[in-house]
Amino acid sequence: MNETNGKLRMAKSEQTKAKIIDVFLGLTNKKKWDKISVKELCATMGITRGTFYQYYNDIYDLMEQIEDTLITDLNHRYQLLPLKSPNGLFPPELFDSKYDYSPPQELFVWFDFCKNHQKAVSSLLDTKNGDAYFVKKLKVILAQHINHIMDYDGMPRDGLREHFTKIFIELHFMAARTWLDSKEEDFLSIREIINLLNTMRVGAGFLSNKQMTSPDFEAKMKFPADREVL
């Protein structure tokens, strides 16, 4: 009987925490997360501040626990992927036979994660009311796995890689924001949104190969005189 009561109390406790998180994330639609007070959160939820303090020290502790849970889950998802050895920079003539243009599993991990934590990710990635520090932590994780993709693709570690990685990370965020905030009738499938990102990755590989194999590459890629970048 005591064991049953203990399980019931634990279940109720988890439900209360989940409700606090849900209401808190809902409030971030109206104001920046660190401007939300415990008093406002409790009034919206209809609980006492004493109930809130059973689980969290303050709003910052609440946000930290939310983010830690998300980061742990994302890292775990990536760790479950099968290990693939980098191909290295293979000869240009072998590009067609060795280049794997299928969408990398790392992209599926990212969008499955976003879908499973839709409300939290949408709130935290919000450019106005989200948490820039959380975004920085995500960038570190994404950069590691994007570089792994590029190593597997046999892409050179040249001066362009850092810039490509930064742009590709921003596209991860932009795609996630657009996707999660879409109305149901405009909602793209995970496959469709992944194919959009994969197009950029494949295009980078194709152009890198052409740069090494096509004598007229520079001429074709040159900006017209009236379109020179200043």
Structural notes for this entry:
- This protein has 230 residues and is mainly α.
- Helices cover 67% and strands 0% of the residues.
- It contains eleven helices and no strands.
- The chain has helices spanning 2-27, 38-45, 49-53, 59-79, 95-98, 105-116, 118-124, 132-152, 159-180, 190-213, 217-221.
- The longest helix has 26 residues, at 2-27.
- The mean pLDDT is 87.
β-strand amount? under 5%
Assembly state of the chains shown: single chain
Mean of all residue-level pLDDT scores: 87
Largest sheet, described in full? none
Summarize the topology:
Elements: H1 2-27, H2 38-45, H3 49-53, H4 59-79, H5 95-98, H6 105-116, H7 118-124, H8 132-152, H9 159-180, H10 190-213, H11 217-221
Helix pairs in contact: 1-2, 4-6, 4-8, 6-10, 8-9, 9-10
Key terms for this structure?
230 residues; mainly alpha; 67% helix; 0% strand
Short description:
The protein has 230 residues and is mainly α.
